[in-house]
Amino acid sequence: MPRLAIGPEFPRELSALAQPVRRDAVVALRRFLLNVAGAPHPQRVRGCRDPRVATLRLAEGHRGVVVRQREVYWLRTVLPDPEAWSYARRFRFGVNPVIGVVEEWDAEALERVEPALRRSARSSGLFDPICDGDLMGLGLDVHALPLFRLITTEADVAALEPLLPPTQHVPLAVLARGGTLAEAWRELDAWRASDEETGPIDPEDLHAALRRSPDRAAFVADKVELDRVLGAPAWCTFLDPPQHRLARAARFEQPVLVVGGAGTGKTVVALQRAAHLAAHGSGPVLLVTFSQALAEDLSAKLDLLIEDEVVRKRVEVGNTERLALRIVADAEGRRPALVGPGARTLAQLTDEALRLLSLATGGLLDDVDPGRKPYRHIVVDEAQDISPSQWRLLRAAVPRARDDLFVVGDPHQRITDTRVALGAVGIPAAQHTLRRSYRLSQELLSFVVRLRGGGPASGLVKGTTNMYGFHSTRNGDRPVVRAYETPESELAGLRSTVESWLADGVPADEIAVGARSPRLVRDARRALEGLDVRASTFQHLKGLEFERVALIGVAEGVVPEPPPEEPDARARALQRERSILFVACTRARAMLYISHSGRGSPFLSL
């Protein structure tokens, strides 16, 4: 029976096909898995650069391109026949000899580039001081070494990036900017999906390489698994190696902190870790986020991610305020009042919940009787905006044992005045960093980093966190900043912009409009009457993402709001205002539109 692995591009390309073609392709793949009569069979490709590449006829006029090794088939794409043949001839595939992941090379384009590199080559190459043995020790392909020896500038390395597997480009880029062999090795090693991989690497074993490459392949054994991979959002199935290593680790002996910029997949890692702990942990799991609205969004995502109802019920999703309210309500027999006579603040309720929880556990050492705690595992999203007292409550709600706390956040997206180092509240976390943004284009990323200020922010562990090495995986449109004479003309421009987006075919639920104040949000809603798009304050866009985002009223005196006079308070307030605007800007996947009437915000003077 064939063993079929689905590549990440295939479900997306399949969904873009006409419904009859899509239906026929799925039926063909089901037959292929069963190896029955009428199933598509592999057809060799003349003139291909990799003899393992073949095509499968999946529907009238459409073919899938597979990389085949014995009974293993890696399904890369589905295209109209002429394009499928062209794709099959263009690429070659391999296995990194050092870390064992699959690699895809744009062989046709590299053949065109090589003469240009030869013409521009100088007397000495950029990597001449490094011997072949050291380069191969970094996993660089022995057959590509002559090409790499032609490189003379860091710009050459950057130009080759789209044509090379990332596991080939990353060590070259480190060396090109003057990094050491040890630094290049650390960057390459980050592409392992597991820290537990042992044994020799066989560069000829495609099956093992695909197993080591969760971002590039998902094996399906039957119709149920096939339908799940084809129908689920990509984040449910395909994790890049750093994400996979964190989310699916067998165990962590101490609390874990994962930091990363916008779009690096922190929330995906939190969801996947919660699902992993529900399936393989030793007790109930609490997934915590910033607000109840975000909690509802995460709960819906977990419903997609966890198919087993029994496992799904092991994960509770909420926020710290809800946890505190429930603990106090259970002890007092009624829900505590938050308004009116006798009302307590959320901070007071958090302190009371911590006191009650300490009494309930009897003051026992956590590892003596961990079953006295309400949860065995806690996963925290949007950690940068959780207060010290809330952290103490979370610490008390879970035993001090392995896999107790898994925390994700980004200090640069802090929208409150919270400053806390986890070690100070009894959480000695080991920090890990995600640096690749999958949501933001490089153009948008460069814009928002300048807007936010790329300097360090107070971290969640002792010291600061900076944006060094934060980069995107793709290019896109530059953000649009538009000035208007009057608020009325700005709102008219907003409506015209949103109407044009809808006319482009962007779904209404993939468009968001943001403003700094509730008054401006109300103005936006009136201007957009009849257009079913979301309008929220900047803060209420936190944790969400959309195809296109429009931010209005980004004007002097509005963004930032007038800060206090006291110097320290003023500095903190201005940085918080930058962070709030930064958060709103980074909700956009494809296009960001910013407008103001009168003088623009000083934050826009990039």
UniProtKB/TrEMBL annotation:
Keywords: ATP-binding, Helicase, Hydrolase, Nucleotide-binding. Gene3D superfamilies: P-loop containing nucleotide triphosphate hydrolases (3.40.50.300). Residues 534-596 form the UvrD-like helicase C-terminal domain. It comes from the Bacteria. Pfam families: AAA_19, UvrD_C. This is UvrD-like helicase C-terminal domain-containing protein. It comes from Nonomuraea angiospora. The lineage of its organism: Bacteria, Bacillati, Actinomycetota, Actinomycetes, Streptosporangiales.
